[in-house]
Amino acid sequence: MEYCHRPRELMWKGYTQYPDQIWGLDTNDGLKVVLPPRFLDELKSHPDLSFKVSIDSDMQIEYTRFGGPPEYVINTIKGSLNISLPAFTPVIHKIVRDNLERVIGDYPDWTPVKVHDRILKLVGTSNARVFHSAAVSQSEEWVDAATGYVITTFDCIKALKAWPPYLRPFVYRFLPERAAILDQWRRARPFVEASVRQKQKMNNAFLESPGSMLDHLCAVQNGAFSRDIDKQLLFQMTLVAVGTVTTFASITQALYDLAYRPEYIAALREEVESAPREANQLFSRTSLAHMKKLDSFIKESQRLSAPDLTTFQRAATADVTLSDGTVIPTGTRLEIATSAIHLDEKNYEHPNQFDGLRFYRARLEPGAENRHLYVSVGKNDLSFGYGRHACPGRFLGHINIKLIMAEILLNYDFKLPDGAERPKNGEFEAIVSPDPEIEIFMKNRWPDEA
Is 391 part of any known ligand binding site? Predict the structure, then answer.
């Protein structure tokens, strides 16, 4: 049970006791092997190491319906969605701007606000346009079912892992979280079916421009997938889960960090205010690239409060022999102790100290302009994994995070209660979650200040 309730401490203990060595974690689901970063390059594209098999196991896919995205979906993100992100940026900004007051709230005076669920809803609204359609993004029913699934899934995982694996096939039938998941999928299905039918009537033309993931996943060349309602529902709910949880958690963590460290607010706000805009006053990819200090702040927040304590999760689908002769047997699950690597003073100066401009200063070094970005990956920079399975959705997440943080900076003042500490995170196994019950004080900025 130590791995369930003291995971960060165990990660650091193993990392420091066995430097540059292979070691193991005893979990309720069996042994997990933790690799040192020196093996990353030889394993990053290994055909016998599966990201999906590992994530499916961790997420209890047979009970939660949540697992790693199918390779087909990942390829569509890389080959279709990411290419269209420059066109999507002002579209997402308009959705965020138009829904900000409705979702986050209107506060003429200082008001305590639980921002966790509000940020989740705002991310769910913008992601619904990217994943599905503009009409669905404005549907309370869809956004409620989709964002509810994000939360309920992880509640269900925690409930299941309180039981030994051999009892879970019986226990899951009685869990209220499992019943809620089924209800959320039932509520989402009519929206997917209606969109697929509409596309069929349009000879599979895009519902709008730029095309959503549903548009791409329903493309004619994809054959039966384009007409399979159950497959398209699976794709949509998988995208909702993987594409929302990290983004909304990262925004919430960054807001907690910024409310606790208000000395950064003025510099970040000034940077946002000075960013170039399109003629309709919407931000573009160029605008977001201008926000280098904000990029550094959210990256530092993620370094210390990443959604996962481990990354580079893999399961061996065949025996794998490492360069030092070590044999990884079939079925072994592997990971990297990312949280410990990010606190290693060999990798970061004063690693336990929050430095919101750490990466901004690093990018000022000659030749480093395009390094140390929020979306960067490297052997000491592993929040998004490494290799061919490094998170392909991080580019969309980056856009959402910056746009929402920018609009909050422009439209609200915010702070923690006097004397409050930085809110503590919840940690269960490798999952890190911002506390949903935390209140921060918020107040509208005067019109001439926004």
Answer: yes
